[in-house]
Amino acid sequence: MSDLDLATLGVHADDELALLTDVAAPLHLTSTFHHDPRMIPAREHNILLSGPGKHIYSRFGNPVIDRVEAVLSSILGGHVVVYGSGLSAFTGAMLYYSPARVAIDGGYHGCHNVLGVLNRVSGQSFKIIDHYSTELDKDDVFHVETPINPTGEAIDLAKAAEFAHSRGAHVVVDATFGPPPVQDPFAFGADLVLHSATKYFGGHSDLLAGLLVTKDSSVRDKLLADRGLLGLQPGNLEAWLLLRSLRTYKIRLEAQCRGALEIVQFLAKGLSDGSLPTLDKVYHSSLQTDSFVATQMPNGLYNPTFSIEVKSAEVARALPPKLKLFHHATSLGGVESLIEWRAMTDPHVSETLLRISVGVEDPKDLIHDLQQALS
């Protein structure tokens, strides 16, 4: 099915895994499955590598997870392993590589917190270093998030991968802010790609999930085994909700990308001509002049989440309640537009910064709402 459009893959990539005649995939709530009547002993097969026709226990996999992973593998162009959250997926990646050093600059504060936990239980064996540090060595991890949270600005993946690979390190790319068809991290040197599927793949603010993508089936098998042993898999209902969401993934994402670009252009113009006096800065990959951005995002689509800075922390605190169409809440990627005074959840950002996630509403309505609040 690799020659089909993303919209078609989202609906049909799991057709071969349909067990019943239901048009909508059924929800499987069972925790356990009948054993294989052939009575094969565990020493003769790997019970951790569950899959179609050989399910044993839902911690190792179930029919809904099979279908979710089939659709996502088609969309993402690799072998997908689904987790219970984006941070579970990040944990799975770090435990798989078990690096002596992790080069990580900025990005989602939750990843930094996970590394703190891993260091606590491992005696500081995960040393945190800066990107492009000369300490980076063989089998270390270079973790890069692009577009980066919370600003939505793009990071040069080709440059990062060239440096990391020259030192023998693995490149893990968190592409949550830029899912396909916005960008393809594998085309620029990623070894492992991470997404918080809670966001654009889920798209309805009603589930938690994460995923890792690899081009190597042997890596996929090791990730699956670790996931089953550590209990990092999504719940049955969450997997079903994610499968439901993938049916409309491309339609939603493209509408959000177009809407965000229109809003960013309005804000940038208002900043330039002074018509939005409380606005101080606008951050978005579409506003970057670096030549790599157009190469890395070749389809004319840019991330639907971006940030603005206003003149003062007082203005930043006052702005969300004045908006009528933006929910003041954390997270992103849902069909409803969100704004967050980011200092409420991330202690490392400026108190003048607000992160905006654009939903599927008419962008003109969202622009009018922002205009009345900012002016």
How much is the average pLDDT?
Answer: 95
Shape field: globular
How many whole angstroms does the radius of gyration measure?
21 Å
State which percent range the strand residues make up: 5-15%
Strand line-up in the sheet with most strands: 1-7-6-5-4-2-3
Largest sheet: 7 strands, mixed
Low-confidence stretches: none
User: Helicity level, as a percent range?
Assistant: 25-40%
Could you state the order of secondary-structure elements as H and E?
HHEHEHEEHEEEHHHEHEHEEEH
Distance between the termini: 50 Å
How many helices? The count is: 11
- Secondary structure class reads alpha/beta
* Total strand segments: 12
What does this structure look like?
- By secondary structure, this protein is α/β, with parallel strands linked by helices.
- It has eleven helices and twelve strands.
- It is globular and about 75 Å long.
- It starts with 5 loop residues before the first helix and ends with a helix.
Topology:
Layout: H1 6-12, H2 63-76, E1 79-83, H3 86-97, E2 101-104, H4 109-122, E3 127-129, E4 141-145, H5 157-166, E5 170-174, E6 192-195, E7 210-214, H6 217-230, H7 236-246, H8 249-273, E8 279-283, H9 291-296, E9 305-310, H10 313-322, E10 327-328, E11 338-341, E12 353-357, H11 363-374
Parallel strand pairs: 2-3, 2-4, 4-5, 5-6, 10-11
Antiparallel strand pairs: 1-7, 6-7, 8-9, 9-12, 11-12
